[in-house]
TrEMBL record:
<feature type="domain" description="J">
    <location>
        <begin position="81"/>
        <end position="146"/>
    </location>
</feature>
<dbReference type="GO" id="GO:0008270">
    <property type="term" value="F:zinc ion binding"/>
</dbReference>
<dbReference type="GO" id="GO:0005829">
    <property type="term" value="C:cytosol"/>
</dbReference>
<feature type="compositionally biased region" description="Polar residues">
    <location>
        <begin position="446"/>
        <end position="462"/>
    </location>
</feature>
<keyword id="KW-0472">Membrane</keyword>
<feature type="region of interest" description="Disordered">
    <location>
        <begin position="441"/>
        <end position="471"/>
    </location>
</feature>
<dbReference type="InterPro" id="IPR008971">
    <property type="entry name" value="HSP40/DnaJ_pept-bd"/>
</dbReference>
<keyword id="KW-0007">Acetylation</keyword>
<keyword id="KW-0496">Mitochondrion</keyword>
<dbReference type="GO" id="GO:0005102">
    <property type="term" value="F:signaling receptor binding"/>
</dbReference>
<keyword id="KW-0488">Methylation</keyword>
<keyword id="KW-0863">Zinc-finger</keyword>
<dbReference type="GO" id="GO:0009408">
    <property type="term" value="P:response to heat"/>
</dbReference>
<dbReference type="GO" id="GO:0031072">
    <property type="term" value="F:heat shock protein binding"/>
</dbReference>
<dbReference type="Pfam" id="PF01556">
    <property type="entry name" value="DnaJ_C"/>
</dbReference>
<dbReference type="InterPro" id="IPR002939">
    <property type="entry name" value="DnaJ_C"/>
</dbReference>
<dbReference type="InterPro" id="IPR036869">
    <property type="entry name" value="J_dom_sf"/>
</dbReference>
Length: 484
């Protein structure tokens, strides 16, 4: 049967009233089953203790000095529910507890929550809960008393404080795990800790060219290069096989040996309390080989950062801002294009738009013009009477479609070019034409239209010429006025 001192020490920390006998050497401490302050009943007492209490009370009746202890609400509130922290039930198996810890440790690990100030605290709580519940003895104590002797700072005989359990009770308990959370994590999941299990970073050495491979490259193109496509050379950082060791990770002239820790299996057995698990070997990291003389160029990684020239095949018809993905070594690089604007072409997807100027005579009489196309020049037939802003469509003469078949269209906007300077002969011809124009509002160099549709100068000339004058005679006079 447990000693009175040990039982009283434990029950005193649980808030149960204790009584002490005076002038006796046999019994130093006895316990009651009811708290005199809160009248709380404690029915779950270790078997045999209640019998011992009753016998002690009968034997020392009238000789007992009662001392009252009451559990503080502050201590009760500070007590943690480790099952709730891990999100498991009290009857969960060891493997379920370990699985829950694995998921929560991954979620709250500081390496993935650098911007969350509470992540470190949560990771500490999860590690603390797992340390208690993963140990069979500590879990049994926790299930029985809601705490462990280690947490209360006392061993089997309450030796954690000079005053024993009574002195221990007076402290405000804020338990801290005896194992560092990172150390516990490494012990379970290997020496590489978090990164070895949850990080997808590749193992390579840096160099004078930088610490990693390029992720995205910006490439500038002219309009013509984007339209026709081009193979353009760029220089960027890539991760590739070490040129010194050829990927062997060993210094030239040496070779790797079989790992003496895992005996070439790549796995090792790790014991953590009641758990035994198989994990990747912490010495060879699963490679099964041990390198005594690692390559100095790549630090024994087998690959490092190198500066290389790469040819980027630019597809024809690429647009500004488009991105392509291409493999460079064993990595993927995203290439984003920046296409310069053309002074001549205006692009709308696969279609292009241009302007073409024609003269007054071409607009009135018709004709043909030659224009520049995206891939070749084109001849456009101008119909007589063509006015400004007339659009001509050249089907299939636009940009090549990158994500489809065929080509876009080329739209030509016609503009009638009005001359700003005229020779004397050109002025005379235009004046003669203006005199023959009908239904023209306003005036042209003093030639005013009459209500009958004829200009005043034309009417005067007709009166002078008489009825026998013909248009042919008028044209002859215009020619003589121009050419003499």
């Amino acid at each position: 049967m447990a000693s009175g001192k040990g039982i009283a020490a434990i029950l005193r920390t649980r808030g149960i009233c204790t009584i002490s006998a005076r002038k006796t050497g046999k019994f130093q401490n006895q316990v009651l089953l009811q708290c005199n302050d809160c009248q709380r009943q404690f029915a779950t007492v270790t078997p045999g203790v209640d019998t011992w209490i009753r016998s002690a009370s009968e034997k020392f009746s009238g000789k007992l000095l009662t001392r009252h202890f009451h559990i503080s609400s502050r201590w009760s509130a500070a007590r943690k529910d480790y099952y709730e922290i891990l999100g498991v039930s009290k009857n969960s198996a060891a493997k379920d507890i370990k699985k829950a810890y694995y998921q929560l440790a991954k979620k709250y690990h500081p390496d993935t929550n650098k911007n969350d100030p509470n992540a470190s605290k949560k990771f500490q709580e999860v590690s603390e809960a797992y340390e208690i519940l993963s140990d069979e003895a500590k879990r049994k104590e926790y299930d029985t008393w809601g705490t462990t002797s280690e947490q209360m700072g006392m061993g089997a005989n309450s030796g954690g404080f000079p005053g024993g359990a009574e002195e221990a009770y007076k402290h405000n308990w804020d338990f801290r795990a005896s194992v560092n959370p990172e150390e516990l994590f490494r012990k379970i999941f290997g020496e590489e800790g978090f990164k070895a299990h949850f990080s997808d970073q590749e193992d390579f050495a840096d160099s004078r060219y930088g610490f990693g491979t390029a992720q995205e490259v910006i490439m500038n193109l002219t309009f013509s290069q984007a339209a026709r496509g081009v193979n353009k050379e760029i220089t960027l950082n890539v991760v590739d096989t070490c040129p010194k060791c050829g990927g062997s990770r060993c210094e030239p002239g040496t070779k790797a040996l079989r790992c003496h820790i895992c005996h070439g299996t790549g796995m090792e057995t790790i014991s953590t309390g009641p758990f035994v698990m198989r994990s990747t070997c912490r010495a060879c990291h699963g490679t099964r080989m041990y390198i005594k003389h690692p390559c100095q160029e790549c630090d024994g990684k087998g690959q490092n950062v190198q500066r290389k020239k790469v040819i980027v095949p630019v597809p024809a018809g690429v647009e500004d801002g488009q991105t392509i993905r291409m493999a460079v070594g064993n990595k993927e690089v995203f290439v984003t294009f920046r296409v310069e604007k053309s002074r001549y072409f205006r692009r709308d997807g696969a279609d292009v738009h241009t302007d073409a100027e024609i003269s007054l005579s071409q607009a009135a009489l018709g004709g043909a013009i030659r224009i520049q196309g995206v891939y070749e020049d084109h001849t456009i037939q101008i119909k007589s009477g063509t006015s400004s802003h007339t659009k001509v469509r050249l089907s299939g003469k636009g940009m090549k479609k990158v994500n489809g078949m065929g080509y876009g269209d080329h739209y030509v906007s016609i503009k009638v070019l009005v001359p700003t300077t005229l020779s004397e002969k050109q002025k005379a011809l235009l004046l003669a034409y203006a005199e023959l124009e009908r239904d023209t509002p306003g005036s042209v160099h003093g030639v005013t239209n009459k209500t009958d549709g004829r200009s005043s100068s034309a009417q005067a000339k007709q009166e002078v010429q008489g009825e026998g004058e013909t248009d042919e005679g008028l044209l002859g006079k215009i020619k003589r006025a121009i050419f003499g």
